[in-house]
Specification:
Blueprint (H helix, E strand, L loop, with lengths): L2 E2 L21 H13 L2 H7 L1 E4 L20 H10 L4 E3 L8 H16 L8 E4 L17 H7 L2 H17 L4 E2 L23 H16 L10 E7 L18 H17 L4 E4 L3 E2 L2 E2 L4 H11 L5 E3 L4 H7 L7 H11 L4 E2 L5 H14 L5 H17 L19 H14 L1 E5 L12 E4 L7 H4 L21 H9 L4 E3 L3 E6 L2 E6 L2 H10 L2 E7 L17 H12 L4 E6 L7 H4 L4 E4 L7 H9 L27 H4 L25 E7 L3 E2 L5 E8 L6 E11 L10 E10 L4 E8 L6 E2 L5 E4 L1 E7 L2 E7 L1
Parallel strand pairs: 2-3, 2-11, 3-4, 4-5, 5-6, 6-7, 7-10, 13-14, 13-17, 17-18, 18-19, 21-29
Antiparallel strand pairs: 1-27, 8-9, 12-19, 15-16, 20-22, 22-25, 23-24, 23-28, 26-27, 28-29
Helix pairs in contact: 1-13, 2-12, 5-14, 6-7, 6-14, 7-8, 10-11, 11-12, 14-20, 16-20
Bound molecules: beta-D-glucopyranose.
The site of beta-D-glucopyranose (BGC) has 10 residues, from loops.
């Protein structure tokens, strides 16, 4: 085969405009020159240091943070004036009110305003599904659910609203979006990703970045985005958080880098580094990725920030540095611009050792200047140097009905119908429902981790007025038609998720009176290390509860509020219907009612392969060999549900797939037209998914790859032709060195059951 190298023609199939934030503004660069010429070495070093809010809070004699929190002025002055630190992050142990956030931010900024420091602080927060650390904020579904909406416009609105409410909290920097790929279902942060496919993650990721950062400049309603965690963090071999990943260069180039590259091209201002190690190299020491790929090849102009304590981990966990001094030198020289140190007194040690390293020539002054230039650039671009910190006078749309409506819309478009036997759904509101299951009566199961607290499992912080599933059912059908018997609980036992059956006799008794049983199953909220699990199987007791329900012979609807695909093979066949809610956020239960009762049609589609077995883990873009069975036929790829799968009440039909040409030459575009018709009785949204297959190649090709998609609304009876313009970029694969190439030969497009071939000559 002849290898062809093409220049990448970027074709905007969707509405997203290209990067608009002007990151190379000569005025800003000359201001930075002036700053750099006046800054002392210590001041420069301080800019690269980030501490946690806890480090500057007042504590009692037992060293516990005093509540309500109070800033310890002495500690803050020491950090800002004596050590010149440049950044603060996080929340204490729990969510704070708008007033508390204002108090914190005004206090910190007063140092710059009153000229006690020359450079303002950049404050960062994990507002990953709405401003989840601000009381009353609009909480959206988590990223995995947003991805299931396959709707970049909704992702952009999520970004805009989250940015707005982050700014309402006085914060300018959001540690989001996560662009890691969901390719290891055991991993505790699966739900924080945009799914398993690089194209879907790129499109949705770009839209979120657009929403966060806005156009032209980060104004008073937008924030700097932070892409994380660069790169390969999501694929630990053991499944446990922050353990080694082994990923061939080919896969890094084809799968893991594209979402980051797309978001960098979109103008994302900052990027957080992978805490784990890939192919034996800790993310924080990977010069090739951080400096060569990101900063040189991609021309990234923003700054990189380490993850939590990661310089320390280079010597204390990874064993790739002799001590903290060696770790700082290795990490900083690899390309880490800011270190999330983040505790006290560790940050003082960091500042002292960095200063020493520059004095001893172990870190070149140019390297330090480059890092500081990047940090100052972002601070200037987001308006921190303005005395009012570029804050608006008021943010009266915070938690407004309009914002909540969009959060509900996002849940509505993501919740996915996986099974619906004999049209058991939609339910009729006059039917008696028996609701049971661990996730039925508490909002924590719909929000998951990163909700008011890190692990998100403290119900006392649940948003007032937001409904759990039980409350939403009661509102929908009235208390008299709702029977409730929880029957199974999820809890933590020695840090691991456990479950127990409770009072199943009551459940069985109530079942006799019910027309339909709804079981709300799922997972205990958790993330990062505390979220490590040992098996993908749904807990034994939840499976048992489903079997008890089936034995009653009443129709059973399973609701899955899961952070990752948990194995449910043995309870699928007997379920009348199965609905995946993911972690749909504060308005997820309201959206669920609309869907269950047919006020809206389902339009969510799985953004990952729903695995059928605990051991046999496969993805949708597997090569042909994965589909070959023991008996030799090609039917062995048999997940519970495929990537992209999802049912609706209307189920539009696909009528034709046409190409405007049967062959193309390098550089040319091809138009693919798909005709789809909604023969159903109501309007629906359909996700038209276009896949491409390279039929023969010099390296084993993926069976198919998603190359374009569009979510379209079709009225009852409507027929529509959707055009996709596909560039050569979609024909690329990575060679063994990670170089993206395309080869001449035959290719096939597929949409549902339709296909058409063309050749690249
Ligand atoms: C996580 C990051 C997060 C950071 C700050 C780390 O433990 O890995 O995703 O942004 O903490 O909270």
């Amino acid at each position: 085969m002849i290898r062809l190298f093409f220049s990448i023609i970027s074709v905007c199939i969707f509405i997203h405009a290209k990067a608009q934030i002007n990151v190379s503004n000569p005025e800003i660069e000359s201001r930075i020159d002036q700053f750099l010429s006046k800054m002392t070495l210590e001041e420069k070093v301080g800019q690269t240091c980030q501490i946690t809010l806890d480090a500057i809070l007042k504590r009692d004699n037992a060293f516990a943070v005093i509540e309500p929190i109070q800033i310890d002025t002495q500690k803050l002055t020491e950090a800002l004036v004596q050590f010149h630190i440049g950044s603060i992050l996080n929340v204490g142990s729990h969510t704070l009110g708008l007033k508390e956030w204002k108090y914190i931010q005004d206090n910190i900024h007063s140092y710059f305003k009153e000229k006690k420091t020359n450079v303002p602080i950049i404050y960062g927060i994990d507002a990953i599904h709405g401003v989840n650390y601000t009381i009353g904020a609009t909480l959206f579904p988590h990223e995995i659910a947003l991805a299931a909406s396959w709707n970049p416009e909704l992702a952009k609105s999520f970004g805009e609203i989250t940015a707005y409410e982050t700014r309402a909290s006085g914060i300018h920097w959001n540690f989001s979006p996560v662009l890691d790929l969901a390719r290891q279902p055991l991993w505790s942060r699966f739900f924080e990703t945009l799914g398993e496919d690089p194209y879907l993650a790129s499109e949705m990721g770009k839209a979120i970045v657009n929403g966060y950062q806005g156009k032209d400049k980060v104004d008073a309603y937008h924030v700097a985005a932070c892409l994380k965690h660069f790169v390969g963090y999501s694929n630990p071999q053991s499944g446990r958080d922050r353990t080694p990943a082994w990923i061939p260069e080919k896969m890094i180039a084809e799968l893991y880098l594209p979402p980051f590259k797309a978001a960098v091209e979109q103008g994302a201002l900052t990027l957080m580094i992978n805490s784990g190690d890939v192919n034996g190299i800790p993310g924080h020491m990977n010069y090739n990725l951080l400096t060569k790929t990101l900063k040189e090849d991609w021309d990234f102009k923003g700054f990189t920030v380490s993850d939590w304590e990661d310089f320390d981990f280079l010597h204390s966990v990874h064993n790739t540095a002799d001590d903290i001094y060696d770790a700082i030198i290795k990490g900083f020289n690899a390309g880490v611009d800011m270190s999330m140190v983040p505790y006290s007194p560790q940050y003082k040690t960091y500042c002292e050792l960095m200063t020493r390293a520059v004095k001893e020539g172990k870190i070149k002054e140019e390297r330090l200047n480059d890092a500081v230039r990047r940090i100052l650039r972002v601070k200037l671009l987001i308006g921190l140097f303005e005395t009012n910190r570029n804050q608006a006078d008021n943010y009266n749309k915070f938690a407004s009905d309009a914002h909540k409506k969009l959060a509900q819309e996002a849940a509505l478009e993501s919740i996915t119908l996986l099974k619906n036997s004999n049209n058991i759904l939609p339910l009729s509101a006059d039917k008696k429902v028996l609701l049971a299951g661990p996730c039925s009566d508490n909002l924590i199961f719909l929000n998951g981790a990163w909700t008011h607290t890190w692990q998100g499992d403290d119900a006392k912080y649940n948003t007032a007025g937001a409904k759990n599933i039980k409350e939403a059912f009661a509102q929908k059908i009235g208390k008299d038609k709702l029977l409730f018997s929880k029957a199974c609980e999820l809890y933590l036992d020695k840090g691991y998720e456990s479950s127990r059956l409770v009072n199943t006799q009551e459940f069985q008794k109530f079942a006799k009176k019910a027309d339909v049983i709804v079981l709300a199953l799922g997972e205990y909220p958790s993330t990062e290390k505390p979220g490590d699990i040992r098996s993908l199987n749904l807990s034994k007791e939840q499976l048992e509860l489903a079997k008890i329900a089936y034995a009653t012979k009443k129709p059973v609807v399973l609701l899955l509020s899961e952070a990752r695909p948990r194995i449910i093979r043995e309870i699928v066949d007997d379920a009348a219907a199965i609905v995946h809610t993911y972690l749909p956020g504060d308005y997820g239960a309201d959206a669920l009612m609309k869907l269950l009762y047919g006020e809206a049609d389902f339009s969510g589609r799985l953004p990952f392969t729903y695995q059928k077995y605990d051991g046999q883990i496969e993805f949708y873009d597997h090569p042909r060999s994965v589909a070959k069975s023991k008996a030799g036929s090609f039917d062995a790829f048999n997940p519970q549900w495929e990537f992209g799968y999802g049912l609706s009440y209307n189920m539009p039909e696909y009528k034709s797939l046409d190409l405007d040409k049967s062959s193309i030459k390098g550089g040319a575009l091809i138009k693919v037209s798909v005709k789809v018709v909604n023969k159903g009785k109501t309007s629906t949204k359909e996700v038209v998914q276009l896949y491409i297959s390279d039929l023969k190649a010099s390296m084993v090709p993926a069976g198919k790859k998603l190359c374009a998609f569009q979510k379209v609304e079709l009225k009852a009876g409507e027929e529509r032709t959707i055009d996709f313009i596909i560039s050569e970029k979609s024909l690329y694969f990575a060679d063994s060195n990670g170089k993206m190439i395309a080869e001449k030969g035959k290719f096939r497009f597929t949409v549902k059951n339709l296909s058409a071939e063309f050749s690249l000559d």
